[in-house]
Specification:
The chain is α+β, with helices and mostly antiparallel strands. It has a domain of 99 residues: Beta Barrel (Lipocalin). The strands form 4 sheets. The chain has an 8-stranded antiparallel beta sheet with strand order 2-1-13-12-11-10-9-8, sandwiched between helices. Strands 14-15-16-17-18-19-20-21 form an 8-stranded antiparallel β-barrel. It is globular, with a radius of gyration of 24 Å. The termini are far apart.
Length: 525
């Protein structure tokens, strides 16, 4: 072994951190990252950035921004980081609370809402506080399809809350919910007197120098962003329409941020530096910043695919903070979070005690977080000065040689040859749910049954089960968002309601039929 290499290994063993420079680190990981992306064709583009001791160690793009023009990804290419936006939302809110002597994370949610506000249970109405929202203890599911309701706003979402059911007793479980951060978004807007996007820009992006970062809700067009892709029929990649990306981002604090490797490195350094900017000036008081990383809610499960004895090294999540998960990797404390939305898959891992951070974001699906965990395990070992348990070969063969297979979902081809249980005209009508509003079922001029919900629309195709259907996405949902569990209910042989199970599988909304004729404006050709 060369003396220089031996010295690096010895120092790494003593400190637990690699002493490699930026160019040396790139030389160490670059080939493996290229190969990992090449053997995962469902992920066309990848951005990676790594920070160490307050400095940018590595930032590079891989693959292409789009499969049509094959433009290369760079460290300036924007990616949607989805739920990693939650850490921004939480940071903004605790920063705002610093300005008020009478407000804290223990202030009741109801205190920020209109008079008469309530959750579906009295115990939540009386006791739920900001901490419950940010750490997911409410046990009210995301109900994400509410975003498709064209009548829904960040402000009037609060009026839907009495009708959204919980799935576990209050403060007894971890039920991850985008809905919580939709409420956090509104509360920040109420405190700040501006749109959430403007508050994030003024309070966080600008002070940290995140000059390229923006939002799916406000970006004029997506030319500087990598195109998001979903797996379509026959594993064909389908570009996610910008209209869907924008609409799904209306709960801004839950998923709306677009950023790049350079900017996100500044965000990692901010968190590794105790809430201070690059000059050492605090943006958030030390007291309030401590809330962001502290454990607030236990997490009962970790990905089985990255736990011993299945694999040589465990990646463990132990608790949820505010927009971060606490855990351990090789005995080191980590903070991490994932971000998953239509067409984008992201992850961040921080080693707060070692002043290290890793960010990846890629286009395409990454079910079970497999590729993200592979990338972060490999990069973590490389940063820690440890021979990685993964390499260019095993990142492509995974889960082999450790175990045989992983069960993945596939694009479901809808069988369009099945006959309905009754004449299609009997399903036509307007249906109402107090939380979701109205869905409208119509017959178009070609005799096709259509379900419309706000800005979303699906062609309905019968299943073999009585009065059950699948929905094939139309317009911006075409080949991107089908719904496979729709059940009509009858009484005395007449259709009286429709249950759209896909909207929220563990608390499915039931829409009651209020008219057998949809409004004239709903009839399409």
């Amino acid at each position: 072994m060369e003396p220089y290499v031996l010295w690096i290994v010895v120092v790494a063993l003593i400190t637990g951190v690699s002493t490699l420079s930026g160019p040396e680190f790139e030389a160490l990981v670059d080939g493996t990252l290229k190969q990992a992306l090449k053997c995962h064709p469902q992920n066309p583009g990848l951005t990676v950035s790594v920070v160490k001791d307050g400095h940018l160690l590595f930032a590079k793009g891989y693959g292409v921004t789009d499969t049509q023009w094959n433009n290369p990804v760079t460290n300036q290419t924007l990616f949607q980081i989805a739920s990693m936006s939650k850490a921004f939302a939480a940071t903004l809110l605790v920063k705002q609370l610093d300005k008020y002597s009478n407000l804290s994370i223990y202030t009741k949610v109801a205190d920020f809402m209109d008079p008469g506000f309530s959750f579906s249970t009295q115990i939540r109405t009386t006791n739920a506080d900001l901490r419950d929202l940010m750490s997911h203890t409410l046990a009210i599911p995301s109900n994400s399809y509410l975003r498709m309701d064209s009548n829904l706003t960040r402000e009037n979402l609060q009026h839907r809350m009495p009708y959204l059911k919980s799935v576990h007793p209050f403060r007894t479980s971890f039920v991850y919910s985008n809905l919580n951060y939709a409420l956090v978004t509104y509360i920040s807007e109420k405190l700040g007197g501006k749109k959430w996007e403007d508050l994030i820009h003024d309070e966080l992006f600008q002070p940290l120098g995140m000059d390229s970062s923006t939002f799916v809700t406000t970006i004029p067009e997506f030319s500087k962003a990598a195109t998001g892709y979903r797996n379509g029929p026959g594993s064909r990649l389908v570009a996610v329409p910008p209209a869907l990306t924008r609409r799904w981002g209306i709960w801004a604090g839950s998923n709306s941020i677009l950023t790049n490797g350079i900017d996100y490195a500044k965000w990692m350094n901010f968190h590794l530096n105790g809430g201070k900017d690059s000059t050492g000036s605090p943006l958030v008081s030390a007291h309030s910043f401590g809330y962001l990383h502290a454990p607030h809610n236990l997490i009962s499960s970790t990905s089985k695919y990255f736990l011993q004895p299945n694999v040589p090294v465990s990646t463990i999540d132990t608790s949820y903070a505010f927009g971060w998960k606490n855990g351990y990797f090789r005995g080191n404390k980590i903070l991490r979070h994932t971000g998953t939305t239509f067409g984008y898959s992201s992850m961040v891992t921080l080693f707060p005690d070692l002043n290290l951070g890793i960010f990846t974001s890629m286009t395409g699906q990454d079910e079970h977080y497999i590729l993200r965990n592979l990338l972060h395990n490999f990069l973590s070992d490389s940063l820690l000065g440890i021979t990685p348990w993964l390499n260019a070969t095993t990142m492509c063969t995974f889960p082999n040689p450790w175990y045989s297979s992983i069960s993945y979902s596939h694009y479901v081809i809808i069988d369009k040859t099945i006959s309905a249980s009754r004449p299609l005209s009997e399903y036509v009508g307007t249906y109402h749910n107090d939380a979701y509003g109205e869905v409208r079922v119509i017959l178009d001029s070609k005799g096709q049954l259509i379900l419309n919900y706000g800005v979303a629309s699906w062609c309905l195709w019968p299943k073999h089960s009585h009065d059950q259907f699948q929905g094939e996405g139309r317009d911006m949902l075409d080949e991107t968002l089908d719904i496979h569990q729709i059940k009509f209910h009858s009484s005395h042989s007449a259709i009286v309601s429709v249950e759209v199970i896909t909207f929220q599988s563990n608390a499915p909304p039931v829409f009651t039929k209020i008219s057998s004729q949809p409004p004239a404006s709903s009839v399409i050709g």
